Amino acid sequence: MEETIFDKILAGDIPADKVFEDDHVLAFRDVNPRAPVHVLVIPKKKVVTFTELKDRETEEVGLFFQRVAEVAEQLGLDEEGYRIVMNKGKHGQQTVHYIHAHILGGRQMSWPPG
Ligand code: 5GP
Predict the structure, then answer these.
(1) What are the tens digits of pLDDT across the range 72-82?
(2) How wide is the angle at C-alpha 92 spanned by C-alphas 15 and 29, nearest 5°?
(3) Is residue 114 in some structural domain?
(4) Hey, CA dihedral for 33, 35, 36, 40, is it positive or negative?
(5) Parent domain of 68
(6) Does residue 37 lie in a domain region?
(7) Cβ neighbours of residue 109 under 8 Å, at least 6 residues apart?
(8) Phi and psi dihedrals of 82, rounded to 5?
(9) How many domains does the chain fold into?
(10) Which ligand 1 atom is the nearest neighbour of the CA of 16?
(11) Averaged over 24-47, what is the pLDDT?
């Protein structure tokens, strides 16, 4: 399996601005923020793409999304709202092959996304 920049962040080999960490996930600020708040959440047990979630335990998948919601809440985004983005593959423009949820907030989003 290809080692990605997120594997290195998780291993502590590359610094990241962490906002949340527990046994299951790590959340850190995106190095190239697309909104006033732009945080990435990754599961510690590696998943490469969204598709792979169908082969994982329901508990593991559910826990990941619960943590995403908790991190967004802790970031103070609940009242005004926020956007969760998960890119998959070429058309989805996934650039890092380690699953991650983008939490984007702090500004008005538009629809449809580009
Ligand atoms: P994707 O396009 O795969 O959905 O998103 C990957 C995200 O990772 C991008 O928003 C990019 O800015 C972010 N990113 C890439 N390299 C690094 C890094 O070294 N540190 C952090 N914090 N974010 C990164």
Answers:
(1) 999 999 999 99
(2) 20
(3) no
(4) negative
(5) 5-105
(6) yes
(7) 35, 83
(8) -165, 175
(9) 1
(10) 22
(11) 98
Q: Is residue 113 part of a domain?
A: no
As annotated, the active-site residues are 100
Rounded distance from Cα 5 to ligand 1 centre (Å): 8
From the CA of 87, give the closest atom in ligand 1.
4
| The overall pTM is greater than 0.85 | yes
CA of 104 to the centre of ligand 1 (A): 13
Span from the CA of 58 to the centroid of ligand 1 (angstroms):
26
Does residue 72 form part of some domain?
yes
* Mean pLDDT within 87-92: 97
Number of the ligand 1 atom closest to the C-alpha atom of 94: 3
**Helix then strand then coil, % of the chain, to nearest 5:** 30, 20, 50
Q: In the numeric block, which tokens belong to residue 112?
A: 């449809």
CATH number at residue 86: 3.30.428.10
Rounded Cα distance, 52 and 13, in Å: 26
